[in-house]
Amino acid sequence: MKWKKGAVSPILAASVLGVLALIAFQLVWMRYSRRLSEELFNQRACMALCSTVENYGGGAVCNKNDSGESCCRLNSADDNPAFDSSFHANLTEQLKFYQIDLGYKLTLSTEKLCEKHPYQCSVSLPTENGENAFINLVFPEKEAFVLQKMNIMVAATILILLFISAILLMANWALMKQKRLLQTNVDFFNNMAHEFRTPLTNIGLATNMLTRKHEILQNNPFLEVIQRENGKLQAQVEQVLQLARLENGDFTLQPETFALLPLLQSVADDMAIQMEEKNGQVLLETIPATLTVWGDRTHLANVFRNLVDNALKYSSDAPPVIRISAASIANGVEILVKDNGIGIPPDQCEHVFKKFQRMREGNLHTQKGFGLGLAYAKSVLQLHKGHIKVQNISPNGSQFDVFLPHKPH
Predict the structure, then answer these.
(1) HEC string of the chain?
(2) CATH number for the 255-405 domain, one of 3.10.180.10, 3.40.109.10, 3.40.190.10, 3.30.565.10?
(3) Given a cut of 90, is residue 117 above it in pLDDT?
(4) pTM of the predicted model as reported, rounded to 2 decimal places
């Protein structure tokens, strides 16, 4: 999918979603940790109260006052309405043993209040009349105490989130900067190629007029060099501009159904001069005259012209022989372009269709060009919903497999 200029970067969007997901996960984890901390606190507090009651070993006395309410006290608490100082001292000591240094409140009643107040625990004591009294332990500042214990966890979580967010922000900023720089370079080269096209066209027109007006120059070798090299430059510039239009989306196909053989024959005729220079030939083999394809005639011709030109560039010392065959298959048409050149190393087969990639011999590029021909061919075939692949053939040479689907219904 191609992203338009000004659209939100997919990497930036993914980073934001990742940070939001991490924040949500951390919030859930902290909530779970707080619940575990509260449960652990309750367990320790109840264990401390149980140990204190077990050491006390006595019971409680409960009487009803004039208003009918039950008033309870420990058996040993003669001078206190409920608890004596030794019970408080023992409970405080047990709480410190369980690492709870927090103010508390104790109540003694015939009702178990922990169901109404989750921040307390209750332990039962027998009374003289055979019923049970409940010691209720309440911590008014328990919530603040638990949150204080989680301060380090909260601070660490915030620092980690800030650190990750800063890294993602810096990475996205660097990527967007590189993207802008790359787009600037691409625009510069495209504009430069566009500006080159006009003077190159004028050079071609001027040399043609010279040969027409001055017959003595018609076979001039220097003028032929100018015309040949000018044609090569024009072809390279057109490749750059065509590929730029493909990538920018400023390109629309004009598909039609046409016979494949005449198209390939025209490509062979166009490459005849280059083939003669190397004593090579293009052979059209087993191509039925009735075989048709669906696509843009002009750009498909450019695709096969680039394949033939590529085979010619990387030909071996022997005269180049390029064989083109085609056949109808289940879902479309398959065209094979074979050559007897130097072949393509296996480690470079996946890279030859990338822009500005040319096959290397050692550390040197032996052939001229921008390395755009095969990238252009792949892009055009993808627009046709087709594909192209390359493989080595023995004893030497390479084979390009081109697939074009049937006309969609």
Answers:
(1) CCCCCCCCCHHHHHHHHHHHHHHHHHHHHHHHHHHHHHHHHHHHHHHHHHHHHHHHCCCEEEEECCCCCEEEEECCCCCCCCCCHHHHHHHHHHHHHCCCCCCCEEEEECCCCCCCCCCEEEEEEEECCCCEEEEEEECCCHHHHHHHHCHHHHHHHHHHHHHHHHHHHHHHHHHHHHHHHHHHHHHHHHHHHHHHHHHHHHHHHHHHHHHHHCHHHCCCHHHHHHHHHHHHHHHHHHHHHHHHHHHHCCCCCCEEEEEHHHHHHHHHHHCHHHHHHCCCEEEEECCCCCCEEEEEHHHHHHHHHHHHHHHHHCCCCCCCEEEEEEEECCCEEEEEEECCCCCCCHHHCCCCCCCCCCCCECCECCCCCCCCHHHHHHHHHHHCCCEEEEEECCCCCEEEEEEEECCCC
(2) 3.30.565.10
(3) no
(4) 0.51
